[in-house]
C-alpha cells in the first residue's frame, strides 16, 4: 500500500562532503527538507564543536535584529513581508551582514541616547516653566494686611520688614492674618522657600511627612499640572504637581530638602524677585522652542533609519536563521582524519534519494568544489523515524492521530480512515441541518480565504486551531447536515418535503381537546411505506412519544456503528500482522479477538436487524409488535445462560428457530477464545525457545535464554511492529499477555457501552435546540402588530447568539472531544501501537516558522 496508509520507507545513509562544499550542500538540503541528520558527536560539549564561533556570531546578529524589530514595533512602522524566502547567504557574506547590523545598531543607539537626553532636558524645562507660572500665581494672590490689635493695643498697621519691598508685600500676603499675628511688633521675619515638582500620587504622603517632620513650621502650596508629562526613560505619561514650601531657618531648609529627595521630588531654582522670574520664564520658553525643533529633527532621522531597516528586516531574519541552522547542522558532523572531509549520517525517505542526490550536486556546483559528495546506504537494526506525507487537507487529520502517539515505523496509519469516520461519528451526535450548515459555511469561508488568512500569521492560538482544522470543520458541518436530514431536524423543527405518510382520522376539535390521542400503524392511519428520506415529520408534533421513539432509534444505531467501528479496528490489526509476518499474533491474537467480537456483539447487532425486519404492527401473531422481545434482555440472558421468560400468549420465545442453540454455542466459543488469547502466544514462544536451546546447546554450551536468544516470527526490517520478545523473560511475556487479554475482553464490553455517548449527546443536542426554540424564539413569534416585529427582532438576536454560542460552539466542542475519545480509545486501541518517533527533517521552512513563533511569544 502507498504511503497514505503506511509511513514512508526510510533508509539510513552515510554522507561524505568536502569541507569547502559542506556549507552549500547542507543549504540545499535545508531548502529541500527531506533529510534528518543524526548527531555523531553526542559526547562533545556544545561549546567545543567546530563551528561554535559561527553559531555565536549568528546569535549576536539575531540579538541585533531583535533590537531593531523592537524599535520598529515601538514606532508602529509596518515591516515589509513579501512572503519569499531568500537563499542562505554564502559564508563570506556574513561579514557584510555583521557590518550592516553593527552600523544600524550603533546609529540607532546613539540616536536613542541623544533623543533621551533631549527629552530629559525638555522635561526639566517644561517643569521649570510650570513652576515659574504657578509660583507667580501664588505670589500674586492678595490677602488683607490690616488686622486688629490685641487687648492691650489699639488698631495699627504692621508691615513685614524685609530688604526688598516687593518681597515684603508678597511674603506678607502669603503668610496671611495668622502669620502676621504670630510675629511680634518690630521683629524682622526673613522667609526662605523651595519650589519643585512631584508625582501627583505621592503628594498626600509628601504633605503628611512635611507636617510631621517640621512640626507644622512650614507653609506648603501646591497646584496640579493639567497636561501629562512624558517620562524620558520609558515614554509613559505621568501626572505631576507643582509645590512651593516656605520655611524659616537653615535647619528647616535642610530637613525639607531631604524629604524632597526621599520622595524623588525635583527641585528647581526660582528667583525671589518677580522681574527675575519673568526674565527666566522668557528664557525657558525660548529654549523649549529650540528643543522642540531639535527633537523633531532627531525623531525624523530615527524614523528614516527604522523605515529603511523595516524594508529588509524580515529577509535579514530569514538569512541569519538559515546560516545559524546550517552551522548547527554542521556541528553534528564528524571530521575525517585528514580534516578535509565531513562525514554525516542521516535518515532519508527511500523514494527521495535521487532528489537528495540532485540537491547535493547543485550544492557542490555552487561551492565550486571538484569532488562530488558521496551518499551511501547503510544497514542498521535501529528503528527508523515515522514519516507520513501530508497535504493541507490531510495534515489536520494526521495531527489528531499524532496527538495520541506517533505510529511505529510502517505501522498502519489510521488517518485516511479517520477522514471519513471522524466527521461521521461527530455528525451522529451533532445532527441538525441548520447547525451543520453554520459550521460548514464557516469552514468553507476559511477554505476559500485560506491564502489571505494564512498570510496574516496571527498569534491568537484559538484562531490558529480553528484555521488549522478548517477542513475538519467543513466536513463535520457537511456530515452534520446529512444526519440532520436523516433526523429531519433543522433548528429543532422538521421539513415536510415529501408529505407525511401518516394521516389523521379525527376532526380538529377532537385533536385539540384530547392530548392522549395516538395513531396506530396497524390501521389506515399509516400508509404502510416509510418516509422516502429520513424521519417522518409527523414525529415533530408527537409530543408524548417523540423522545421515546428517537431514544430507541438512536440507541440502536449507536451500538450498530460502534460494533462496526471496533470490528474494523480489529481487521486493521490483521494488516499489521501480515505486513510484519507476525504469525503468532495473527493466529493467537487476531483470530480469537475477531471471533470474540463477532460472536457476542455482532450477533447482538444482527438481532436488532432481525427484530426490525420481522416484527411489525401489521404482521399477525407471533410477529406482531406486542411479541417483539427486548434485545438487551435477550443479550443478558444469552451471556448468563438464563432461561428466557415465558412470552405473552400467542408469541414465541425466540425470534428464529435454533436461536437458543446458536446463542449457547456462540457464548461457549467466545469463552474458549479467552484462554487462546491468554496462553497461546506465550506457550508457543516458550516452546520455540526450548527447541532453540536443545539445538544450540551441544555446539555452544549455552544454557540460558539470554545467551541463546529466541525465534522471531517477524522478519520485517527494523523490527517495526514484529515480535519483540526475544530478550524478554518468559514470565514477563505471560504477565503482559494476561494484561492485554483482560484489557481486550473487558474493553469489548466497556467500549461497546462507550459508543452509547453517540445516543446521549444526540438526544441532548436535540433537546437543547428544542428548549431554545420553545422558550426563546417562540415567545417572539407569538407577539402581533408592530410591537411584535420589534419584539421578534430582539428575541431573534438573542436566540441566534445562544444558538451559535451554546449549540454550535459549546455543543460542537463537546461532540468533537467525544469523537476524539472514540477514535483514540475504542478504535485505535485495537491495532495502533503509537510508540514511534516522528521524522524531523532539517528544513528551513520549519526552522523559520518556529523562530518567528518564538520571537512573537517573546514580544
Overview of the molecule:
With 859 residues, the protein is of the alpha+beta class. The protein has a domain at 150-285: Alpha-Beta Plaits (2-Layer Sandwich), CATH 3.30.70. It has 24 helices and eleven strands. It has helices at residues 19-32, 52-74, 93-140, 165-182, 203-213, 250-262, 274-330, 353-367, 394-404, 415-430, 433-448, 450-456, 461-468, 470-487, 508-513, 546-579, 583-614, 631-640, 659-700, 705-708, 730-754, 757-781, 785-827, 844-858; strands at residues 10-18, 36-37, 192-199, 219-224, 229-230, 237-238, 240-247, 266-268, 334-335, 341-349, 374-378. Strands 1, 2, 9, 10 and 11 form a five-stranded antiparallel beta sheet that branches. Strands 4-7-3-8 form a four-stranded antiparallel beta sheet, with helices on both faces. A two-stranded antiparallel ribbon has the order 5-6. Strand 9 and strand 10 (341-349) form a beta hairpin. It is flat. Mean pLDDT is 86; it is low at 142-188 and 699-723. Pfam families: V_ATPase_I. This is V-type proton ATPase subunit a. One of its GO terms (cellular component) is vacuolar proton-transporting V-type ATPase, V0 domain. Its main location: membrane. It is a multi-pass membrane protein.
Amino acid at each position: 500500500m502507498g504511503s497514505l496508509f503506511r509511513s514512508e520507507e526510510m533508509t539510513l545513509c552515510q554522507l561524505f562532503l568536502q569541507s569547502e562544499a559542506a556549507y552549500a550542500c547542507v543549504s540545499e538540503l535545508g531548502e529541500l527538507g527531506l533529510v534528518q541528520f543524526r548527531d555523531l558527536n553526542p559526547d562533545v560539549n556544545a561549546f567545543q564543536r567546530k563551528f561554535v564561533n559561527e553559531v555565536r556570531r549568528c546569535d549576536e546578529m539575531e540579538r541585533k535584529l531583535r533590537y531593531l524589530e523592537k524599535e520598529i514595533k515601538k514606532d508602529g512602522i509596518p515591516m515589509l513581508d513579501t512572503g519569499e524566502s531568500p537563499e542562505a547567504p554564502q559564508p563570506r557574506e556574513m561579514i557584510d551582514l555583521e557590518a550592516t547590523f553593527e552600523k544600524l545598531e550603533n546609529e540607532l543607539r546613539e540616536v536613542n541616547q541623544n533623543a533621551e537626553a533631549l527629552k530629559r532636558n525638555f522635561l526639566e524645562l517644561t517643569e521649570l516653566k510650570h513652576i515659574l507660572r504657578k509660583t507667580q500665581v501664588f505670589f500674586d494672590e492678595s490677602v488683607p494686611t490690616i488686622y486688629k490689635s490685641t487687648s492691650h493695643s489699639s488698631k495699627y498697621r504692621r508691615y513685614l520688614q524685609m530688604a526688598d519691598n516687593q518681597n515684603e508685600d508678597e511674603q506678607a500676603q502669603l503668610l496671611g492674618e495668622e502669620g502676621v499675628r504670630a510675629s511680634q511688633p518690630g521683629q524682622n521675619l526673613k522667609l526662605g522657600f523651595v519650589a519643585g515638582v512631584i508625582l501627583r500620587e505621592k503628594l498626600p504622603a509628601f504633605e503628611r511627612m512635611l507636617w510631621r517632620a517640621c512640626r507644622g513650621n512650614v507653609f506648603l502650596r501646591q497646584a496640579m499640572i493639567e497636561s501629562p508629562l512624558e517620562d524620558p526613560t520609558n515614554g509613559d505619561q505621568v501626572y505631576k504637581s507643582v509645590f512651593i514650601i516656605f520655611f524659616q531657618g537653615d535647619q528647616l531648609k535642610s530637613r525639607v530638602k531631604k524629604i524632597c529627595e526621599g520622595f524623588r521630588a525635583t527641585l528647581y531654582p526660582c528667583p525671589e524677585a518677580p522681574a527675575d522670574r519673568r526674565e527666566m520664564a522668557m528664557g525657558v520658553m525660548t529654549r523649549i522652542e529650540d528643543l522642540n525643533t531639535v527633537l523633531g529633527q532627531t525623531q525624523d532621522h530615527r524614523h528614516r533609519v527604522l523605515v529603511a531597516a523595516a524594508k529588509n528586516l524580515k529577509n535579514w531574519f530569514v538569512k541569519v536563521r538559515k546560516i545559524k541552522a546550517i552551522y548547527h547542522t554542521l556541528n553534528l558532523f564528524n571530521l575525517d582524519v585528514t580534516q578535509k572531509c565531513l562525514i554525516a549520517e542521516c535518515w532519508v525517505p527511500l523514494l527521495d534519494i535521487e532528489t537528495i542526490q540532485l540537491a547535493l550536486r547543485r550544492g557542490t556546483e555552487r561551492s565550486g568544489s571538484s569532488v562530488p559528495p558521496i551518499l551511501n546506504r547503510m544497514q542498521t537494526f535501529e528503528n527508523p523515524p515515522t514519516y507520513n506525507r501530508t497535504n493541507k487537507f490531510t495534515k489536520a487529520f494526521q495531527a489528531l492521530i499524532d496527538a495520541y502517539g506517533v505510529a511505529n515505523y510502517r505501522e498502519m496509519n489510521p488517518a485516511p480512515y479517520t477522514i471519513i469516520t471522524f466527521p461521521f461519528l461527530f455528525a451522529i451526535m451533532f445532527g441538525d441541518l441548520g447547525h451543520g450548515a453554520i459550521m460548514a459555511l464557516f469552514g468553507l469561508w476559511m477554505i476559500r480565504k485560506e491564502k489571505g488568512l494564512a498570510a496574516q500569521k496571527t498569534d491568537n492560538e484559538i484562531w490558529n486551531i480553528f484555521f488549522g482544522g478548517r477542513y475538519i470543520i467543513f466536513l463535520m458541518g457537511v456530515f452534520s447536515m446529512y444526519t440532520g436530514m436523516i433526523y429531519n431536524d433543522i433548528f429543532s423543527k422538521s421539513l415536510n418535503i415529501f408529505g407525511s405518510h401518516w394521516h389523521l382520522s379525527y376532526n380538529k376539535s377532537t385533536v385539540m381537546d384530547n392530548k392522549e390521542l395516538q395513531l396506530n400503524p396497524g390501521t389506515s392511519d399509516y400508509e404502510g411505506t416509510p418516509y422516502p428520506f429520513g424521519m417522518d415529520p409527523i414525529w415533530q408534533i408527537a409530543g408524548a412519544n417523540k423522545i421515546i421513539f428517537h431514544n430507541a432509534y438512536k440507541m440502536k444505531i449507536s451500538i450498530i456503528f460502534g460494533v462496526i467501528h471496533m470490528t474494523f479496528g480489529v481487521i486493521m490489526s490483521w494488516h499489521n500482522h501480515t505486513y510484519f509476518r507476525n504469525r503468532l499474533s495473527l493466529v493467537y491474537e487476531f483470530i480469537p479477538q475477531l471471533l470474540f467480537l463477532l460472536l457476542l456483539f455482532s450477533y447482538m447487532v444482527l438481532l436488532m436487524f432481525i427484530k426490525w425486519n420481522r416484527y411489525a404492527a401489521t404482521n399477525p401473531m407471533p410477529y406482531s409488535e406486542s411479541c417483539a422481545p427486548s434485545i438487551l434482555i435477550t443479550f443478558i440472558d444469552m451471556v448468563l445462560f438464563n432461561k428466557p421468560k415465558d412470552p405473552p400468549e400467542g408469541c414465541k420465545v425466540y425470534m428464529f428457530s435454533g436461536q437458543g442453540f446458536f446463542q449457547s454455542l456462540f457464548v461457549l466459543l467466545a469463552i474458549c477464545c479467552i484462554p487462546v488469547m491468554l496462553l497461546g502466544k506465550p506457550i508457543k514462544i516458550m516452546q520455540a525457545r526450548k527447541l532453540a536451546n536443545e539445538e544450540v546447546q551441544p555446539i555452544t554450551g549455552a544454557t540460558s535464554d539470554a545467551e541463546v536468544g529466541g525465534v522471531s516470527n517477524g522478519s520485517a526490517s527494523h523490527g517495526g511492529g514484529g515480535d519483540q520478545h526475544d530478550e524478554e523473560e518468559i514470565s514477563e511475556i505471560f504477565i503482559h499477555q494476561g494484561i492485554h487479554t483482560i484489557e481486550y475482553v473487558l474493553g469489548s464490553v466497556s467500549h461497546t457501552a462507550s459508543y452509547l455517548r453517540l445516543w446521549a449527546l444526540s438526544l441532548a443536542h436535540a433537546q437543547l435546540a428544542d428548549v431554545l426554540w420553545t422558550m426563546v424564539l417562540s415567545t417572539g413569534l407569538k407577539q402581533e402588530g408592530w410591537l411584535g416585529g420589534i419584539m421578534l427582532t430582539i428575541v431573534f438576536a438573542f436566540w441566534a447568539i445562544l444558538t451559535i454560542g451554546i449549540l454550535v460552539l459549546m455543543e460542537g466542542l463537546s461532540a468533537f472531544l467525544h469523537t476524539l475519545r472514540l477514535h483514540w480509545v475504542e478504535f485505535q486501541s485495537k491495532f495502533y501501537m503509537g510508540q514511534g518517533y516522528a521524522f524531523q527533517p532539517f528544513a528551513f521552512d520549519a526552522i523559520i516558522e518556529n523562530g518567528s513563533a518564538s520571537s512573537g511569544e517573546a514580544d
